[in-house]
Amino acid sequence: MNLKRYSDQQEIGCDEAGRGCLAGPVVAAAVILPKKFVISELNDSKKLSEKKRLEIETLIKSNAIAYSIGIVSAEEIDKINILNASFLAMHRALDKINKKFKLILVDGPYFNEYKNFTHHCIVRGDSKIDSIAAASILAKNSRDRIMIDLSLKHNKYDWQNNKGYPTLKHRDAIKKFGVCYQHRKSFKLLENQMKINI
How many whole angstroms from its chain centre is CA 192? Predict the structure, then answer.
């Protein structure tokens, strides 16, 4: 699948992973790709297998002009809400970029302005624009690794498999063991929120 650039300017794509999770951080990536760089299988990370995402990640990292990761913790998410946390994660990723860019491209319909840069919000941008798709893959893989690491300390919740998403096994573990500091207390963790041991 050959995705397109948005313009002839030096553009940077941004996307996040983990907005719908019950636990763990939200993670964003920012990526500047060379103008003539093509990965035929580049696509929205949700449409790729884990094996393929890891393969493409290697290609992105070895060929990108610049890339970075931004992280916002579960505690911060509870303070500012998940939408603002997603924007903050993208801003933190952009803060780490040390190459010049002119235009920010963001997956989704909304974004908080970053400094004085022009930005464009593109619905389903991760399946349309190459740099956004690249960012979606880096964000997803980075967050998956974080959740696998966290599962070593919190092995009750099956995070190594569910990555913090609201699977039946994850919710059953919350019912049985309560929550930990990595759970997003502002989210609806169970159908009956009163049963949670916070």
Answer: 28
Parse the chain into domains and list their residue ranges: 11-148
Task: Tell me if 183 sits within 8 A of 174, measured CB to CB.
Answer: yes
CA distances from 197 to 20, 21, 81, 87, 192 (A): 21, 19, 21, 30, 12
Residue 198: which pLDDT band, with cuts at 50, 70 and 90? very low
CB 138 within 8 A of CB 60: yes
Q: How far is CA 129 from CA 14, 43, 59, 93, in A?
A: 10, 9, 17, 18
- The model carries a pTM of 0.93
Going by their DSSP bridges, the two strands 118-122 and 66-72 should be labelled as unpaired
- Burial bucket for residue 131 (CB in 10 Å: 0-12, 13-18, 19+): buried
Which overall architecture, per CATH, does domain 11-148 show?
Answer: 2-Layer Sandwich (3.30)
Query: Which of these, 75, 63, 36, lies nearest to 138 by C-alpha position?
Result: 63
Helices (H), 81-195: 82-95, 130-153, 159-162, 168-177
pLDDT digits 0-9 by tens, 136-160 = 999 999 999 999 999 999 999 999 9
pLDDT at 92 over 70: yes
pLDDT tens column, 118-141: 999 999 999 999 999 999 999 999
Query: What are the C-alpha distances in Å from 178 to residues 29, 128, 187, 188?
Result: 31, 41, 14, 13
